[in-house]
Design goal:
There is one protein chain. With 298 residues, the protein is mostly helical. The chain has one domain. It is built from nine helices and four strands; from the N terminus they run ααβαβββαααααα. Strands 1-2-4-3 form a four-stranded mixed β-sheet, with helices on both faces. Strand 3 and strand 4 form a beta hairpin. The longest helix has 41 residues. The protein is elongated, with a radius of gyration of 21 Å.
Length: 298
């Protein structure tokens, strides 16, 4: 039987394998495009632009997400139980106390954001507080602390840079190849052909890799959250309750859905019945997450 420790280690290895393959993929795409266009400056310039764009998002993403979600900061006097729960888990995890926000929505859900543990935010919905018991709530909060402790926001920023870089390179290739004026390419038709194929397919491939890494980080946060509370059943039960709740989260959208502990766009759940739909999911299937948690040995 797999323990929570071996399960977490396995997911970390798989995440970094995906990241390694992702970087190789981006380098390969950039090399092909540069050869096909006979313009060595294309890749360095695209990297610089992608980093500048993503750095801006990195520093301001938490404020943007909280504004979009219409979240308000928790009043310690009004939400004493929630504050104590988070404070206790903060001490157990050895992480700074995050800022707490609440969304006035009856759909149960939660997410964490912030660029590092010193600037972290945990946001919960009113529905989560109303519909989960104490052990389930602790499981959800522990899951979010795991995202914070594992620097998942920072990792997602790196991934966004890579995905944006691929999209930028693809757009530049199409423009420069077909609308850029004189063709001074001397690299041969094979690089041009491969470049056209990559320009069409690479953004999709990059997005699929991004989603695969996101799903691995959810599994990792589940395992680390179970280690933090020493109670995998609390999180497993919480995931079941949240996923079975039929009410969609009104403030969620496709841009923020990946942040939440389960997909808040309930209509999306029907897509799981379609073939290959799992490739496009931001979260692993609830059934798999619950099964893994209940098979864990601490």
């Amino acid at each position: 039987m797999a323990t929570a420790y071996t399960y977490a280690s396995s997911n970390k290895r798989k995440t970094w394998l995906w990241m390694f393959l992702f970087v190789l993929f981006v380098i390969g795409v950039g090399y092909i495009f540069s050869r096909a266009l006979n313009m060595p400056w294309v890749l360095p310039l695209a990297i610089a632009i992608a980093i500048i764009q993503s750095a801006t998002s990195y520093w301001w993403s938490d404020k943007i997400v909280l504004t979009i979600s219409r979240a308000r900061e928790v009043d310690k006097k009004v939400n004493q139980s929630l504050y104590r729960t988070v404070e206790n888990l903060s001490i157990t995890a050895g992480l700074p106390m995050p800022k707490l926000y609440i969304i006035a929505d009856s759909a149960p859900n939660a997410f964490a954001t912030g660029r590092d543990p010193k600037h972290a935010v945990i946001c919960v919905t009113q529905g989560l507080l109303d519909k989960l018991n104490k052990q389930e709530l602790e499981g959800v909060i522990a899951h979010e602390f795991s995202h914070i402790g594992n620097y998942d926001i920072r990792l997602q920023t790196i991934i966004v840079i890579l995905v944006g870089l691929v999209a930028l390179l693809s757009d530049w290739f199409i423009y420069l190849r077909f609308f850029g004026g004189e063709d001074n390419n001397s690299s041969g038709w094979i690089f041009i052909l491969i470049g056209v194929i990559l320009a069409l397919l690479s953004p999709l491939v990059a997005s699929l890799i991004q989603l695969a890494i996101s799903r691995k980080r959810e599994f990792l946060a589940d395992a680390d959250g179970a280690l933090l509370t020493r109670n995998p059943e609390g999180l497993a039960s919480a995931l079941e309750d949240i996923s079975q709740d039929k009410e969609p989260l009104e403030v969620a959208n496709k841009a923020t859905a990946h942040l939440y502990i389960t997909n808040p766009l309930k209509d999306h759940e029907n897509a799981k019945k379609r073939r290959f739909s799992g490739l496009f999911d931001t979260h692993p299937p609830i059934e798999e997450r619950v099964k893994a948690l209940r098979e864990m040995a601490l």
